[in-house]
Write a structure and sequence with these properties.
Blueprint: H1 3-8, E1 10-17, E2 20-27, H2 32-39, E3 58-61, E4 64-67, E5 80-82, H3 95-102, H4 112-125, H5 131-137, H6 149-159
Parallel strand pairs: 1-5
Antiparallel strand pairs: 1-2, 3-4, 3-5
The structure holds FE2/S2 (inorganic) cluster (2 copies).
Length: 163
């Protein structure tokens, strides 16, 4: 069997996605972003640059923000992956969704899920970040619409709401 065929062979991947255990057949070369969108049906995860540059595909892996276009799905065996779809609970928006909405941090909606997941990763490890720390945490998330002032303000406002 040649190398390409080996990579395309399917295996069962077991992982926790947004609090639910799943098992799905994936190829060894499938990217996490493609697994989440095409198999798990979580299209809030966006594909932008497909090369680790834009942050649109950011998800949390074991609580840490990571670009899902740079991670193989099979590397997430047994791990916890969270997407924007997993944040709202009991019919209520997550605090970051709420403040992005209220403070106009969300613009086109394409980069916003990744921004919010990167911000969530930050708030979990640093509940009271400075503006500078927010800007650093979001430096891998590109927005072409406007400046970042409203986005930083939205994250700061979310930090003031109890999780
Ligand atoms: S699509 Fe992953 S960083 Fe741009
Ligand atoms: S809000 Fe999506 S590119 Fe700016």
């Amino acid at each position: 069997m040649d190398e390409t065929m080996l990579r395309r062979r399917k295996r069962l991947l077991g992982l926790n996605v947004n609090g639910r255990w799943r098992e799905d057949a994936v190829t060894d070369d499938m990217l996490l972003v493609d697994y989440l969108r095409d198999i798990a049906g979580l299209t809030g995860v966006k594909t932008g640059c497909d090369g680790g540059e834009c942050g649109a595909c950011t998800v949390l892996i074991d609580g840490e923000a990571a670009p899902s276009c740079l991670v193989l799905a099979v590397r997430c065996e047994g791990r916890h992956v969270e997407t924007i779809e997993g944040l709202a609970a009991n019919g209520r928006l997550h605090r970051l969704q709420q403040t992005f909405h209220e403070r106009l941090g969300a613009q086109c909606g394409f980069c916003t899920p990744g921004m919010i997941m990167a911000a969530e990763g930050l708030l979990r490890r640093n509940p009271t970040p400075t503006d500078e720390e927010i800007r650093t945490a979001l430096s891998g998330n590109l927005c072409r619409c406007t400046g970042y002032a409203k986005i930083v303000e939205s994250v700061q406002a979310a930090a003031e709401i109890a999780p």
